[in-house]
Amino acid sequence: MTKSKKITLSASRDIPFNKLVLSQANVRHIKVGVSIEELAEDIARRTLLASLTVRPVLDEDSVETGMFEVPGGGRCFRALELPVKKRRLNRTAPVPCIVRTEGLAEEDSLAENIQRAPLHPLDQFRAFQAMREKGKSEEEIAAAFFVSINVVKQRLKLASVSESLLAAYADEKMTLEQLMAFTVNPDHARQEQVWEALKQHYNKQLPPGRACETKMRTILSLLRYSEAIPKREIMALNRSQQRQSQNYPFRSMNCGVFRTRCCSTHDNCGASAVS
């Protein structure tokens, strides 16, 4: 039986900033996400939270020159350049780096970019909620996560939703828009009753897009009831919503908690039409 090869991690060390240069092998060329200026301010506030991936620069005889190129973490490198140019950071300030010698520089850069997973909206909500409980304002949370205040407010609305419904969303049993629809009624028992009723009796014969819209509108309708939901009421709502969606085009509506297609009359959510 062959033995599995032992894993050896790349060495890490602090390298003076003036010994680093941006690698031409960096695969990121198009600007997306947080700007370099915002990232620089974040580093100034919280310092550098992740090491740069670097490779020794070799001369014509393959001898190390003492310089290091940065194929992974190029945006952080450029963000560090800004305070250096403004003399807010010393040119010889030590930068935490992972020194790589194996493989290709392009491979390092590609892996560093594609291995990142965006934060799930539910994890985002819990992070926002934890910061709110520790006294942070919505403006401070938005600045810390590089999102708009509206995003923070929308996520924090999920505090009014039952944990069982949050779990259903985490398991991809409903969409974010459907989950947000439950925030119109903070009664957890009522939310769970509506969700259970929909799971048992909802008509699943519609195409996926139409079914999603109809289901969300049904949620908003059923949350208005204060008593137990009769099965016939759910089925009647389903038929009504289907007929309405077939005969009348949806208008874009803003229900206050999310911008999406909603009830065309807004008898159910009380919002106003927007263009």
Looking at this protein, list some descriptive labels.
275 residues, 11 helices, alpha/beta, Conserved hypothetical protein from pyrococcus furiosus pfu- 392566-001, ParB domain, 3 domains, elongated, 44% helix
Using only C-alpha atoms, the radius of gyration works out to: 26 Å
Low-confidence stretches: 205-209, 244-275
Number of domains: 3
> From the structure provided, what is the oligomeric state, counting identical versus distinct chains?
single chain
- Strand portion: 5-15%
Q: What level of helicity do the residues show?
A: 40-55%
Number of strands: 8
Order of helices and strands: EEHEEHEHHHHHHHHHEEE
How do the strands of the widest beta sheet line up side by side? 1-5-3-4-2
* Average residue pLDDT: 77
Number of helices: 11
Shape: elongated
Main sheet record? 5 strands, mixed
Kindly report how far apart the N and C termini lie. Answer: 68 Å
Give the helix/strand class: alpha/beta
Explain this structure to me?
With 275 residues, the protein is of the alpha/beta class. The protein folds into 3 domains: 11-114, Conserved hypothetical protein from pyrococcus furiosus pfu- 392566-001, ParB domain (Alpha-Beta Complex), CATH 3.90.1530.30; 118-160; 162-273, no CATH class. The chain has 11 helices and 8 strands. The strands form 2 sheets. A 5-stranded mixed β-sheet has the order 1-5-3-4-2. A hairpin with a 5-residue loop joins strand 3 (52-58) and strand 4. The protein is elongated. The relative contact order is 0.09.
